[in-house]
Amino acid sequence: MREEALALLGRGLSNKAVAERLNVPRGTVGWWLSEDRRRRGVRYQRPTDCPKCTGRTCDASAYAYLLGLYLGDGHIVSRAKQHHLSIFCTASWPALIDAAEDAMRRVMPMPSVRRRFRQGCAEVKSFTTHWTCMFPQHGPGKKHEREIRLEPWQQKIVDAQPWDFIRGLIHSDGCRTVNWTTRVVNGELKRYEYPRYWFTNVSDDIRQLYTDTLDTLGVQWTSCTRQGKPYNISVARKASVALMDAHVGPKH
User: Fold this and answer.
1) 3-state helix, strand, coil in the chain (%, to 5)
2) Helices (H), 114-161
């Protein structure tokens, strides 16, 4: 039976298909295959569709968006027998959760993707060692405690898909709000409301990436210091807000 299983595997059948055909546990088939490789001195390498490792064309729009999400609310776990990219989303924004998963699948379709829900939070996870290839900014410690610089190939993608990058940053560490103010008109106090986009990130480098990209798009912005900390970037000019509304919009 073992020889028959190995022959079927050699013809390209999956472990699951062989297990079902021979009516044996899938784990047994996997163990037979592992033992056969060990006996022949063959080292198993998991197949990958990583654009950096295979030369496959990357979905630039999806990658630019995912890069923005990663720089804001993402991290990579990369250690023995545990490798995954995680993007954290507020559970009350289901469309954002869907968009994060869709971007992961479009950048690398082969790895499995799962969602893990916690109180008020959804973690979207994609499992492969190759996320460190796609996000060389990965490293020990918090992002704001180390230098964050884009590689030339990443910057090229951002230059080609700037709005997707901005949308990813806003969807992770930004928001669209409605501010209000009062003004005296003809002796009468009137209230005025106006929309504004905020982006808040502790990393100077990540804020610089955001504002540099806004500059290329002609979006006017201001840096707002609160309690001596310049962590907030505001877009409030009417024309600039209109541009952001056309390409980003509120999270939902």
Assistant:
1) 45, 25, 30
2) 131-134, 152-160
Report the distance separating Cα 73 and Cα 172, nearest Å: 5
CA distance 235 to 232: 10
Domain ranges of the chain: 2-40, 51-146, 173-247
Tens digit of each residue's pLDDT, the chain (252 residues): 999 998 998 888 888 899 999 999 999 998 998 898 888 887 766 789 999 999 999 999 999 999 999 999 999 999 888 899 999 999 999 999 999 999 999 999 999 999 999 999 999 999 999 999 999 999 999 999 999 999 999 999 999 999 999 999 999 999 999 988 888 888 888 888 889 999 999 999 999 999 999 999 999 999 998 888 899 999 999 999 999 999 999 899
Q: Are 93 and 101 in contact (CB under 8 A)?
A: no
CATH 1.20.120.450, applies to 51-146:
no
Name the 3-class secondary structure at 48. Answer: coil
Phi, psi dihedral angles at 88 (to 5 degrees)? -100, 130
Q: What angle do CA 77, 135, 167 make, to 5 degrees?
A: 110
What pTM did the predictor assign? 0.85
Domain 2-40 has CATH 1.10.10: yes
The single residue listed with the structure tokens 């798009």 is 217
